[in-house]
Amino acid sequence: MAHSQTAGTGAAPLSRATVLLVDDDPASLRVATVAVATANGEVVAALAPAAAGAGRRADFAVIDIPDPRALALVERFVAAGVTVIATSGAGSVGLAVEAMRRGAVDFVLKPFTPDTFARRLRPRFAERPVPRDAPAPFTPETDAPDATFGGFVGGSGAMRAVYDQIARIAPSKAPVFVTGESGAGKELCAEALHARSPRARGPFVALNCGAIPRELMESEIFGHVRGAFTGAAEDRAGAAEAASGGTLFLDEIGEMELALQAKLLRFLQTGEFRRVGDTRARRADIRIVCATHRDPFAEVAAGRFRQDLFYRLHVLPIRLPPLRERGEDVILLAEAFLARFAAEEGRAFTRFAPEVLERFRAYGWPGNVRELQNVIRRSVVLDDGEAVTLDMLPPELTRTRGAATSAAAEADVEPFHVQERRIIESAIAAFGGNLARAAAALEISPSTIYRKRERWIADGVAA
Ligand SMILES: Nc1ncnc2c1ncn2[C@@H]1O[C@H](COP(=O)(O)OP(=O)(O)OP(=O)(O)O)[C@@H](O)[C@H]1O
């Protein structure tokens, strides 16, 4: 029985459909393997669900759905541009509907024979839209199936939208304004924009305006000449010159003083700037990406951010969603970090206990990806084993709020986080709201203060 579709168009013959099988049951895998071959496809890997993230590229994934939790895998592959065929022995209509709703093209009930399954696969293979080797400069398939983009891991709809935006605006020279909570990946976003821009071979210079004392900020950006201020022992170029031909990333732009904001605006308008203490105007050809974890509109409304500068910078906005809005990305990220840190630290970890994954899904992640990264690095460094278990997680992930509070109340001790917050807030007040100075006086980094503030806000909302 000849199939016109597989006969091709007369030009180069189409390659065979490549298929990834994901199933826990070896007997099912064997039947499916024969079925794929019968339908003239090629199995590139047969995996247990836990290994499915570390995948190979394939046109199709046949995914077994023993229970609703496995539906997330369907979503991941679909998001990565893979055509998914779901199978299940559970026989629930609800599962089938849900699998299709999440993008599976077919749902095949077990048990099946190689022949019955091949009959379902054949038409799918035939309608495969693109031959496997066709160039796809920027499609999910390029980054599939592990759902990565640049340095990003994550295949949620929210992140796919971000990747799409990055790809579309990277070629422009117009400024980009990135917003998102601390640790959400704003710097990674700036790097991805640079890497996909025509300036990719030029420098990428990142400056954190929240981490530099305000009086040094201007010189950090624009440089200075010798003797411009105490300690300026020689002429020095700033970040703008260093980034010339490339991208300047100004993180925490909201921390920049108003006077310096005016100078930055002038630079954006004219392309010219002066080093501190210099009379000579210089030019720099840079693309600016800036970021803030604050609400920029509120900052403008409060008079802390110049409106004219804001509208100059806010040409191409990108909002990075907080981790808690990225669904199963938290698991993908956790797996990626576990694999990386276990390799780096020479540990045996390969997976998470199911309760840990549940906690990861339920937790709010006020520190976002950075917090997740820290939690996993900490477990990997402090413990060893094959699975990360609940007892390896830090208390904020495992404690129930009520229990912690009542224990503290019983002993009449003020919890550490309450004392810590008081100390930090009084230091900020003592320096008239200047976070960088408060951080310097407390001998901690300004980003620590930002992170803690995010946490207080999150806790405040949750309480
Ligand atoms: N989607 C992601 N995939 C993989 N790694 C990520 C992702 N998002 C962030 N990271 C990592 O998490 C850490 C924090 O990200 P990044 O520094 O870009 O956040 P940020 O939003 O700039 O934080 P801050 O506002 O505190 O400066 C970095 O190590 C980054 O590589």
From TrEMBL:
Keyword Transcription belongs to the record: yes
Listed CDD domains: AAA
Pfam families documented for this protein: AAA_lid_14, HTH_8, Sigma54_activat
Molecular-function annotations in GO: ATP binding; sequence-specific DNA binding
Domain Response regulatory: residue ranges: 18-125
Entries under InterPro entries matching the protein: AAA+_ATPase, AAA_lid_NorR, CheY-like_superfamily, Homeodomain-like_sf, HTH_Fis, P-loop_NTPase, Sig_transdc_resp-reg_receiver, Sigma_54_int
Keywords of this entry: Activator, ATP-binding, DNA-binding, Nucleotide-binding, Phosphoprotein, Transcription, Transcription regulation, Two-component regulatory system
GO biological process, alphabetically ordered: phosphorelay signal transduction system; regulation of DNA-templated transcription
4-aspartylphosphate found at: D64
Start and end residues of each Sigma-54 factor interaction domain: 152-381
PANTHER family cross-referenced by the UniProt entry: PTS-DEPENDENT DIHYDROXYACETONE KINASE OPERON REGULATORY PROTEIN-RELATED (PTHR32071:SF117), TRANSCRIPTIONAL REGULATORY PROTEIN (PTHR32071)
Name the UniProt record assigns to this protein: Sigma-54-dependent Fis family transcriptional regulator
Organism, as annotated: Methylopila jiangsuensis
Taxonomic lineage from the root: Bacteria, Pseudomonadati, Pseudomonadota, Alphaproteobacteria, Hyphomicrobiales
